[in-house]
Write a structure and sequence with these properties.
The chain is of the alpha+beta class and about 500 residues long. About 25% of the residues lie in helices and about 40% in strands. The chain has twelve helices and 22 strands. The chain has helices at about 5, 10-25, 80-95, 130-145, 210-215, 220-235, 250-260, 265-270, 340-345, 380-385, 440-445, 490-495, and strands at about 30-45, 45-65, 70-75, 115, 150-165, 170-190, 195-200, 240-250, 300-305, 325-330, 330-335, 355, 365, 370-375, 390-405, 410-420, 425-430, 430-435, 445-450, 455-465, 470-475, 480-490. Strand 6 (about 170-190) and strand 7 (about 195-200) form a beta hairpin. It is globular. The model has no long low-confidence stretch (mean pLDDT about 95).
Amino acid sequence: MDPYFLDLPFRRLGEAALTEAGRLGATYADFRFERHQGQGISVRDTSLESMVTSQTLSYSVRVIVNGAWGFASSVTLTPEGAVATAGRAAGVAATLANLNSEPVELAPEPAHQGTYVSSFEIDPFSVPDEEKVALLIGVNEKVLASRKVDHVDFGVSLVLENKYFASLEGTETTQQRVRVQGDVDATKIDHTTGAFETMRSSALPQGRGWEHFSSGFDYPAAAGEIPTLLEEKMAAPSVEPGRYDLVIHPSNLWLTIHESIGHATELDRALGYEAAYAGTSFATVDKLNNLRYGAPFMHVTGDRTVEHGLATVGYDDEGVAAQSWDLIAGGILTGYQLNRQMALKQGFGRSNGCAFAESGSQVPLQRMPNVSLQPGTDDLDLDDLIGGVENGIYVVGDKSWSIDMQRYNFQFTGQQFWRIRNGRLAGQLKDVAYQATTTDFWNSMDSVGGPSTYVLGGAFNCGKGQPGQIAPVSHGAPIARFRQVNVLNTAAQRAG
């Protein structure tokens, strides 16, 4: 645990706030104190473009008074400030109680006392800035040395998050999470026509420390491969639209999981509560335990416990201990993502720990855990899956995407597209997008790779709520094969 955080007066503030909340008649109250340290570094070609380091401290008090929620936040680090914040929260609840038609009740949760620290080796904020910049420039220099690309950008994001939570129920927890992200993007330009192509490394964000860059993902090796891959992509033929068998790498499939399963199984969306921000969900509660979401072997979990996951925690922002559970089992929709209020109201019993706020100054929302497609029991590899395809496309890396407001009709592109002919890779294609409905797509899946092909992908910036909040989340997947998926030509779409 970061010593700087441990020296902050969060326990004293929490005790003052909760005592005042109880005095004001709160039947439930929690206090959450957060410190967020972040850094973004961007290098273009061989020059440092930007370096921004930030730190925020904030805390909040959330109460239930007269059956209504109240919330207030502050940055005043004194007991008097915490008492005043609790008073404002209780005042909000008193106002809302006059409008409430149904009292707020929460699913029960045992009291917890504990400390959680995510798994990492090197605190990214302990590494000298000069060393970080030198690594980025060194990778870019290797890409440019090929003389096959015109520009290259390397950007990293680093986050260290500390959190203290205490409630009138007796829970008191302290947590620390570290996460990192880094992408190399190369651009090649046809100076005669003005046409250009881009390619990004297949590095994926991780709940790790600086070791992700120094000894984890092999950025120098990726730098050596990108120029030739991009040159081949520039010269590749444009795809012929039609139906193809697809073999999809986890570096692309994670985003399809995020949009078509992760958001679709958020219970607030399924209930229509989140209609104003990117829509609701086709996977409504009447479909629970009967919707054929995908192939019979399809198994998708919600998980707050997986090592190095971006949404992995010890406890959520309602004091619920981290868990793992099924969202889809045997291809059938079997679960949702819950917070304590929805869990009780909808008859699910205990929450599965999906309440999260971006900072101490924001109210917890129902947010996504790590949502992952599980690998098969047979350890099939890429060659096994490609070997079963006569006419298809192998998709690597994520790029743009589009999905409708109910998480049903979608379209995804990628970074690399390889033609498959008679069970073998046969050169790159470009201008590829695959399009389907969620249930058609996942029911077309006929095989998944084994554990050796499983990769944990994800994003730092999943957006939700009004006012908007972002949250980090991971999605694991094996390589998977899909039969007869509709493929579009994106160049023709742009021209049209």
